[in-house]
Design a protein that fits this description.
By secondary structure, this protein is α+β, with helices and mostly antiparallel strands. It has two domains: 2-87 and 116-132, no CATH class; 318-350 and 369-464 and 479-887, 7 Propeller (Methylamine Dehydrogenase, Chain H), CATH 2.130.10.10. β19 and β20 (617-622) form a beta hairpin. The radius of gyration is 41 Å and the shape is globular. It starts with a helix and ends with a helix.
Length: 889
């Protein structure tokens, strides 16, 4: 102990010189702690260990400071000297440190980094190992051990830093999980021009990346954040996991949809569509993924919400349908007997320059290649609706519509007024995606009414259709559907429509003149009349005209809602037995009064729509520029009220918590007129701009099968837009222009009196139809909808973008090209078909072949097999008598 005390000052002096030579590495607190431990060590160590300590300090001092040291105190030992220091390890190499003959481990060259242990602590740890002391050893000293000793303890990196066990276990688990997922993952088919990934190259890249991570692992504190990969690792992971197909610009919500549909198997076992690369129709897979999702969702929800048979007592009776003669039917017929001149230019087909003029209630032959149909109804169209049919019925498709009697007819919305009206039912044949209808469209029959003009009409969604060959005893006829019609006298009239073939067979009614009209035009006794008020009120309605209707979308479809001029919304129970709500009339029809009325708006209710997923919710759009969402269980206040532009019509698609809105441009800000998606308020999303329009959008319709909306405006352009997944916030959806496309564009052009086109003439500035029709014609420019490949560079898309920016409106003339009504087919058999009509009275039907989804193609044969099992030998195809009726002019 005496010798130890005598040598103490000299050792402390050398220790201080060694620390000063290394530089200020540790903080003041760590220096004081190391000095205290060094003093305790010198009191415990024997003289031999203190000499070794002096040798090691001199070696470190000589290699680190590169200064002239005191050599007369202790000679510098050579690398072979067992008491001298061992050569320091190179940072990053995997060679173990050399050991001396007596088993002691000389300290390596300590890197000048923050947070390392001092030499005395490491020697103290080595002494405790020699004495087999049970004190726990610090992890940082494992760098001093050899390869054999490190294998027995914790694994260390070549830099001396122990490997993280938790991170390693987590990464191994993620690697196993990734292998399980990649075993199920089906890689997308390579697009044209894309190179297939090389498996060997991917494996080499993975091995090199793993080697690089092991070699560059160090004690940098910045690397101590576990489970946080670097940017380089993320980029390499994207290169290895991604395909070589190019991706278009997508937002974060779209990327979430992509991950949800990225080629993995769903819980039902059906493969989800790919979301990378291009779909076969030319659209990006991220655009088509919501279409596939909505097709399957629509089918499953219709199985729950729809019914096979409802309202069994409301069967059409032959004696309630009286056919009119020529003289009797004349007051109800539209005034125009011939259509305006029009031409059709189809994309990809050379224009033949033919101008068509179609007689009233006649049609053109469907185009063999493009499948489009055109027919003339006699006047401006303001109401139109498809007749629903069961999925897989392969039945003829029918469209009910109403047109004004004159091209210049106007109606006041303030008061009630009656007059003659004609409801037309047109048969379009058995429409299919690939071949369409082989026959021309024809007027099946018409219903003459005296309740004024028609503002809206709605069919019962399901349960009202039966096969045309259903055996019915006379006077009953097989039922086609139940139609509710909103008239300008404030009444809502309910009709039970028969199949055209059944009506043709039972037409034995005598007429006064003894001659029938060449078209079947009938006076019909309605099933029920729906009126606002009560049995104690007078006949005159205080609510004004009815502008919009909505039928309850879920079975048993016993509720019907309507919006009126004064802002009132009335809801009727069609199956009520209450004496206060149901009155039997002398003609055996019913008069129904609503069981619920509430004031929804300060002005007229322009549009009303029921939520298809939950019948407790309703949306209304009024002339007070407000859109309101209602919960029918608590009507004292709306769920959400949004004051925006003057809305003309709303469409509520099945899977979303909001509506797409068409609007008038009178209150719209510059650049914001068009189609918007507005959330109901539950998710809190901001409005999504679907498509800009330069003029008033009169009508909008949505397809649950295609996740698509279509809108017609005053400029004569029919535009369709594929919606993104609106269950995710669509605020940052990029390149929304890639999702919309024109179906066709109608332009009014001047012509010479002979009918040939003349570029020198100018359109007359008049609102008289007689002058416009003699000096102008309508040109329809159709888009090839079979494929959307290279669509941004095609002429219809460039024309649409030009119209969105530079379109000009001429409001001082009759807008003969304006489109007033657009409707998507709700039926699975014809879910790609779209009808539209407007001021000219020309109805056009187009098939969006390119939007047909793979899910829809799979569902159609399944549903047809299911339909044949339900109805046996009762096919849904029309009978021969019905076929002959459709072909009759």
């Amino acid at each position: 102990m005496a010798s130890s005390a005598a040598r103490g000052p000299r050792c402390r002096e050398r220790s201080r010189r060694g620390r000063s030579g290394r530089g200020s590495v540790t903080t003041g607190r760590s220096r004081s702690r190391s000095r205290a431990r060094e003093g305790e060590l010198r009191e415990l160590l024997p003289l031999r260990d203190l000499d070794a300590l002096d040798h090691s300090e001199e070696g470190v001092e000589a290699t680190k400071s590169q200064k002239k040291t005191v050599r007369n105190q202790k000679p510098k030992s050579s690398p072979s000297d067992p008491n001298g220091p061992a050569p320091a390890e190179t940072e990053g190499c995997g060679e173990p440190s050399r050991t001396s003959e007596n088993g002691s481990v000389p300290p390596p060259k300590a890197p000048g980094k923050r947070g390392r242990k001092s030499k005395t602590e490491m020697l103290l740890l080595k002494l405790s190992q020699d004495l087999e002391c049970p004190t726990p050893e610090p992890i940082c000293v494992q760098k001093m051990l050899g390869s054999s000793e490190a294998a027995e303890g914790l694994e260390t990196t070549p830099g001396g830093r122990p490997k993280r066990r938790a991170a390693k276990v987590a990464l191994l688990y993620l690697q196993e999980l990734a292998e399980e997922l990649t075993s199920v993952y089906q890689p997308p088919a390579p697009t044209e021009g894309a190179q297939e990934p090389d498996p060997e190259r991917i494996q080499k890249k993975r091995r090199s990346r793993r080697r690089k991570e092991e070699e560059t692992d160090s004690d940098d504190p910045a690397r101590d954040a576990d489970f946080v990969p670097s940017k380089e690792v993320l980029l390499q992971a994207e290169e290895e996991e991604g395909s070589d197909a190019p991706l278009s610009e997508m937002s974060e919500p779209e990327l979430e949809v992509v991950r949800g549909h990225g080629g993995r198997m769903s819980s039902s076992g059906r493969s989800k569509p790919q979301c990378r690369g291009l779909a076969p129709n030319g659209f990006h897979n991220s655009i088509m993924a919501p279409v596939e999702k909505c097709s399957s969702l629509t089918c499953s929800l219709r199985d729950q919400k729809y019914s096979q048979w409802e309202f069994p007592d409301w069967i059409p009776l032959a004696h309630k349908w009286t056919c009119l003669s020529e003289s009797e039917a004349a007051p109800y017929l539209p005034a125009e007997e011939k259509s305006p001149l029009f031409s059709i230019q189809r994309e990809g087909i050379e224009d033949d320059g033919v101008l068509y003029r179609v007689n009233r209630f006649n049609s053109l032959q469907p185009h063999e290649e493009r499948l489009d149909m055109s027919f003339f109804v006699g006047g401006p169209v303001w109401a139109m609706e498809w007749c629903p049919s069961p999925e897989g019925s392969a039945a003829s498709q029918y469209v009910a519509l109403y047109c004004h009697g004159s091209m210049e007819e106007t109606h006041s919305v303030a008061g009630l007024h009656g007059g003659p009206a004609l409801l037309q039912l047109w048969g379009l044949g058995t429409l299919q995606q690939e071949q369409g209808s082989a026959d021309k469209a024809g007027l099946a029959y018409a219903v003459a009414a005296d309740h004024g003009c028609v503002w809206d009409m709605k069919f019962c969604p399901s349960g009202a259709w039966e096969p045309p060959t259903t055996a019915r005893k006379h006077p009953q006829m097989s039922r086609l559907g139940l139609l509710a019609v909103a008239f300008s006298d404030g009444k809502v009239v309910l009709y039970s429509l028969p199949h055209p073939g059944a009506l043709q067979r039972s037409k034995r009614t005598q007429v006064k003149d003894g001659s029938f009209h060449k078209h079947v035009i009938c006076k019909v006794q309605c099933i029920a009349t729906l009126q606002v008020g009560s049995i104690q009120a007078g006949n005159a309605s205080e609510c004004g005209q009815c502008f919009s209707l909505s039928w309850m979308p879920s079975k048993p479809h016993h509720h019907l809602a309507a919006g009126f001029y004064d802002g009132t919304v009335a809801v009727w129970n069609l199956l009520t037995k209450s004496l206060l709500q149901c009155v039997r009339q002398p003609d055996d029809s019913l008069k129904l009064y609503p069981f619920r009325c509430f004031l929804a708006h300060d002005h007229a209710v322009r549009s009303i729509e029921w939520c298809k997923a939950d019948s407790n919710f309703l949306v209304t759009a009024g002339s007070d520029r407000k859109i309101k969402f209602w919960d029918l269980r608590r009507l004292y206040e709306p769920i959400n009220s949004i004051k925006r532009f003057l809305s003309t019509e709303v469409a509520w698609l099945l899977p979303y918590n909001g509506v797409t809105v068409a609007q008038d441009n009178c209150y719209a800000s510059y650049g914001l007129c068009g189609i918007h998606y507005i959330d109901a308020g539950y998710l809190g999303f901001k409005a999504y701009f679907v498509a800009p329009r330069k003029g008033t959008v009169w009508s909008i319709s949505g397809s649950d099968w295609l996740n698509t909306v279509a809108a017609g405006d005053i400029t004569g352009e029919l535009v369709a837009a594929v919606l993104p997944d609106l269950a995710v916030n669509p605020l940052n959806v990029k390149r929304s222009s890639d999702r919309r496309f024109p179906v066709y564009k109608a332009d009014l052009l001047p012509c010479s009196p002979a009918g040939s086109e003349g570029g020198e003439q100018v359109l007359p500035k008049t609102r008289l139809y007689s002058e416009m029709v003699t000096k102008s014609y309508i040109r329809f420019r159709d888009t090839d909808l079979r494929s959307f490949k290279n669509f941004p560079s095609r002429e219809p898309m460039r024309r649409m973008h030009t119209q969105e920016v530079k379109a000009e409106l001429s409001l001082d003339r009759l807008q003969l090209e304006s489109l007033h009504k657009v409707r998507f087919s709700p039926n699975l058999d014809s879910h790609g078909w779209l009808v539209s009509g407007g001021q000219a009275g020309i109805i056009r039907a187009h098939c969006l072949v390119g939007l047909a989804s793979g899910v829809g193609r799979q569902l159609l044969p399944e549903r047809r097999a299911h339909f044949s099992n339900l109805y046996g030998d009762k096919p849904g195809s029309p009978s021969p008598a019905e076929e002959s009726l459709l072909l009759a002019e």
